[in-house]
Amino acid sequence: MTTRFRITLAIMLATALPALAQNFPAKPVRVIIAFPPGSATDIIGRVITQKVGEQWGQNVLADNRGGAGGSIASAIAAKSAPDGYTLIINSLAHAVNPSMFAKLPYDTARDFDDIMPLVGQPTVLVVRSDSRFASINAFIAEGKSHFGKITFAFAGLGSGTHLGLEKLKLSSRIDVTAVSYKGSGEVIVDVMGGRVDTYLAPISAAMSYIRGNRLRALAVTTKKRTSQLPDTPTMVEAGLPGFDFSIWFGLWAPAGVPAPIVSKISSDFTRAIDDPGVRDKLVALGNEPISMKPQEFRKFVRQEIGEYARMFKAAGIKPQ
Questions:
Q1: What DSSP assignment string belongs to 139-184?
Q2: pLDDT grade, residue 125 (50/70/90)?
Q3: Coil, helix or strand at residue 88
Q4: Residue-range definition of the domain harbouring residue 256
Q5: What's the gap between Cα 131 and its chain centre?
Q6: Pick from 286, 262, 282: which is nearest to 273 by CA?
Q7: Residue 254 near residue 82, CB atoms below 8 Å
Q8: Are residues 20 and 91 in the same domain?
Q9: How many domains does the structure of the chain reveal?
């Protein structure tokens, strides 16, 4: 290959790729959603992708592929063509699964282009409205002085509610009796009924019960108080410096999508989230939009993978 040919080829590529992105998408785009219909991932994904489809003037097809903590959907996405026409919306499960499962049919770090985070959802520590715990400080004090006395529910091994619990245990050095459930709805019913003491609930699942005085909010897990519960203290205020935990959701593509297309997808999804109507819907569901460029998100995801690996090791959780 001559030097002149290399230069000509480089010029052709440099002009062709931006044009490719400018014409994207030229056909419907499939967005795989890693959890079933009605899940938080599904609801968030559909609110955003509907707006993106309107902007593109193309059908954006939501394809729910739930199961195995989101890893079934990820395996499908990883094997898809890297052309931007297959995307995947997943939760923090994307970063958890390398620690959760002994063997995955894909490489989380190698087989995906990290495009952007979408939203984060705080969790809130709740107890029944007439609980003996009047404050987060009282809860932590009992957790330290009476090991295993407090029953603490979570909605499935490796779920956000489970990870938040493990982080709280490690940060506060409390011990509780953990009780696993299949989903948030069952947990909340049992907390209100007094069959389990407490739950670190997604804020969207708990808000109506808190407002109806059926649950008491002890603390939120973000560094700053949330607009949804402005009178509820943070874990930091309870004496846990730097405590910050949210259930986050993001957008990925199979590895190898041309950079200009990744950039366009990121820009267009950001524009959809910034639409006042979309943002209002997301906030009403307890979410807070997150803004990162693809390279920032890539760094964040790798930090999260490392963080959950350390958490699983410290908690003695064995991969499945």
A1: HHHHHHHSTTTSEEEESSTTSHHHHHHHHHHHHHT---EEEE-S-H
A2: very high
A3: strand
A4: 3-120+247-315
A5: 30
A6: 282
A7: yes
A8: yes
A9: 2
Distance CA 51, CA 268 (A): 10
DSSP 220: E
Q: What is the mean pLDDT of residues 63-75?
A: 94
Cα end-to-end distance, the chain, whole Å: 51
Tokens of 320: 């499945």
Residue where the block lists tokens 């899940």? 39
| 126 plus 108 within the same structural domain | no
Does residue 150 fall inside a structural domain? yes
> Based on the domain organization, do 103 and 156 belong to the same domain?
no
Average pLDDT, the chain: 92
Residue type, 271: R
Q: What's the pLDDT tens digit per position in 90-121?
A: 999 999 999 999 999 999 999 999 999 999 99
Q: Are residues 160 and 75 in the same domain?
A: no
Instruction: Find out whether 99 and 308 touch, Cβ atoms under 8 Å.
Output: yes
Residue-level pLDDT at 155: 85
Give the integer Cα–Cα distance in Å for 65 and 74.
9
> What Rg do the C-alpha atoms of the chain give, in angstroms?
21
Residue 35: what are its φ and ψ, rounded to 5°? -135, 165
Co-location of 69 and 132 in the same domain = no
Total-model pTM = 0.86
- Give the span between the Cα atoms of 57 and 119, in whole angstroms: 24
Token output for 189: 């019913």
Query: Distance between alpha carbon 316 and the CA centroid of its chain, in Å?
Result: 23
Residue at 171: amino acid letter: S
Contacts with 13 (C-beta within 8 Å, 6 or more apart), sequence order? none
CA-closest candidate to residue 84, choices 110, 58, 106? 58
51 and 116, same domain (yes or no): yes
